[in-house]
Amino acid sequence: MNKLHFEKMTPEARKKFKDEYFSRPEYIDGKVPFEYKHTFSSGEVLEAFQDEEGIGHVIIQRDGKTIFDFSKFLPPDFLLVTPKYFQKFPKKKQLFDSIGEWEANFNRRLIFLGDFKSLKDILSLLHEIGHMENNTPEDTEDRRRLLVGSPDDDFSVLPRAVSSEKKLAKLHSKIEREAWAWAIFAIRKAERDTGIKLSEIFPKFSDLKKYINDCLGGYRRSHEWIIKEGHDEDFYKAMEKLFDRWKYSSAVENKKAA
Ligand SMILES: [Zn+2]
């Protein structure tokens, strides 16, 4: 058997990743609101909050006046929705909705808002808007089809065929990168419009790159079963190109696999 190549992630690293990129259960349950506040060194305040209907808002204020509203990047018929929105309007809930995690749904004109826990989450929001603005309808539909199956299917097709999983990996790489590129463009636009240094979020560009790479790495891991289950042991080469430049192989994993 050839040596298997995939990332060795310690339980601590896995937990750290989960804590950073996923929402707290109490937020998903609607016990903790969509709420965050940050004061920039120049005095302006970024505020994330939800209204009575559970619609989320993310704005920047200067001297108590709103000078920037992040929802302006969206077409007017789109909604930013929190878990509270689905408590208020339970009929809007659909099977497979990942309520309380960051996700864009083009067909339903919704952006599911995740847990706004740190200033970095402004990037999570812009990333989801980036999916709306940047991904082609064809890519979006292909992804839905690969994830859920045929249009008449109500159930997620798991396990997927290896060939479908490979297509999905390629598509994820494309649409995720497009959405991140757009998020960075939007950050720069917001900086120009407000004069605020939003780069306070990531003072070093290398930190921003790491944040994005970590996120892409999460997608890569979700496709890694192709390698782990021995369907295609060489698929790590494609995945390295698609998602990040992390080295998969580690002495420990290779010893175990040998
Ligand atoms: Zn994404």
How many β-strand runs?
7
Low-confidence sequence ranges: 249-255
Shape label: globular
The share of residues in extended strands comes to: 5-15%
Spatial order of the strands forming the largest sheet: 1-2-3-4
Q: Could you estimate the helical fraction of the residues in percent?
A: 40-55%
Bound molecules: zinc ion
SSE layout and pairing:
Elements: H1 11-21, H2 25-28, E1 36-39, E2 45-50, E3 56-62, E4 65-69, E5 79-81, H3 83-88, E6 103-105, E7 110-112, H4 121-134, H5 137-148, H6 162-194, H7 205-223, H8 225-228, H9 235-242, H10 251-257
Parallel strand pairs: 5-7
Antiparallel strand pairs: 1-2, 2-3, 3-4, 6-7
Helix pairs in contact: 4-6, 5-6, 6-7
The chain binds zinc ion.
Offer a concise description of the structure:
With 258 residues, the protein is an alpha+beta fold. 46% of the residues lie in helices and 12% in strands.
Report on the architecture of this protein.
The chain has 258 residues and is an alpha+beta fold. The chain has one domain (11-257). The chain has helices at 11-21, 25-28, 83-88, 121-134, 137-148, 162-194, 205-223, 225-228, 235-242, 251-257, and strands at residues 36-39, 45-50, 56-62, 65-69, 79-81, 103-105, 110-112. The strands form two sheets. A four-stranded antiparallel sheet has the order 1-2-3-4, covered by helices on one side. A hairpin with a 4-residue loop joins β6 (103-105) and β7 (110-112). α4 (121-134) crosses α6 (162-194), α5 crosses α6 and α6 packs antiparallel against α7. The chain starts with 10 loop residues before the first helix and ends with a helix. It binds zinc ion (ZN). Zinc ion binds at residues 127, 131, 176, 179.
